[in-house]
Amino acid sequence: MKRASTTMRFGLHTPIGKGYEKAVAYAAELGCRTMQFFCGNPRGFRLTTPDPDAWARFAALRRKHDLLPSAVHTSYLVNLATERQDHFAASMALIAHDLELASSGEVAFVNTHLGSYGKRERAHGHRQVCRALSRLLEDIRPGVQLVLENSAGSGNLVGGTLEELGSFIHEVDHPQLAVCLDTAHAWAAGYKIDDAPGVEAFLDEVEQRIGLARVQMFHVNDTVVPLGGQRDRHHHIGAGLIGMAGFAALLDRAEMREKIAILETPGERAEDERNTAALRSILA
C-alpha cells in the first residue's frame, strides 16, 4: 500500500462541559483538524437538547478552525442487542436524537457502540441489531453517517470481530452506515497491528469483511492489554503494545487520507499534548 500524499485529519475526544468555545479552542491549540464529543451524559439516557443558537455557533466555530468533519459519540449505555425492551427503546431514542443533533450541527458522524447480547442467543440479538439499524437509517438526514464501533470482544459484546461488523454493514446495506475501528479494541480482540505485516493482514481482512471504503473513522489508542486479552484499556500513543511502529504502519498511507483519527487516550492537557505530538510525528 502507498504512503499518504496528504495526511489524514486527527483530533481528540474533547469535553464540552466548559462551553463550546473552550472546547474548540482547546482542540485548535493542540493542532487538531477534527474532534469528537458527547452531546449529553455519556453514562445516561437523558436526551440533551442544546440551545439552537449556541449549537449553530458551535458548528460555525468548528468550521472556522477547520475542525470538520467531526463526530458525536453516543452514550456508553446504548445497547441494540438487549432483551430488555426499556433499555432497547432508550437506546433507539438516544441514537435517533444524536443523529438529529448531528444533522442540525454540521456533524458528519455519529459513533456508537452496539452493546451486549447478554445471555440471549447471539443469532436473535444479531437480527435485532440489524432491524434496529434499519429503522434508525429510515429517517437519517443527508450529510450524516451512523458509525458502528468495534468492541474489545469480551463476554458477549457485539462487534468484536471484523466479520461481525461486516455482517451488519452488508445485511443492512445502507450508504450512510459506516464503521469506526478502535485500535485498542482491535488489539484486545486478537488483531496483531504492532508492525507492518500485521497491519497489512488486518487491513486485508477489513477490506474483505467490511470494505475499507466503509471505514470512516479510527479511534487511535495504544493499550497495555495483552494481544487477545479482551479488555478495553486505552493507553498513550507509543507507550503501549501497539507502539509507534504499529500506528505508523496503519495511519501513514494513502488509503487513510480521507478518514479521521480520534484520540481517546487518558489524562489531562500534558498527556493530550504528548499524544497529539506523537500522531503529528507519524503524519508529518
Describe what you observe in this structure.
It is built from nine helices and eight strands. It has helices at 20-29, 52-64, 85-104, 122-138, 162-172, 183-188, 196-209, 243-251, 269-283; strands at 9-13, 34-37, 71-73, 109-112, 145-149, 177-182, 215-220, 260-263. It is globular, with a radius of gyration of 18 Å. It is of the alpha/beta class. Helix 8 links the parallel strand 7 and strand 8 (260-263). Mean pLDDT is 96; it is low at 1-5. The chain has a single domain (9-283), classed as Divalent-metal-dependent TIM barrel enzymes (TIM Barrel, Alpha-Beta Barrel), CATH 3.20.20.150. The relative contact order is 0.14.
What keyword list fits this structure?
alpha/beta; TIM Barrel
How much of the sequence lies in strands comes to 5-15%
Number of domains: 1
Helix share, percent: 40-55%
Task: Please give the CATH class.
Answer: Alpha Beta
Oligomer type: single chain
The low-confidence runs, each spanning 5 or more residues with pLDDT under 50, are 1-5
How many strands, which pairing sense, and closed or not: the largest β-sheet?
Answer: 8 strands, parallel, barrel
**Any idea of the CATH topology?**
TIM Barrel
Indicate the structural class.
alpha/beta
Order of helical and strand elements: EHEHEHEHEHEHHEHEH
Overall geometry: globular
The CATH architecture is Alpha-Beta Barrel
Q: Radius of gyration from the CA trace?
A: 18 Å
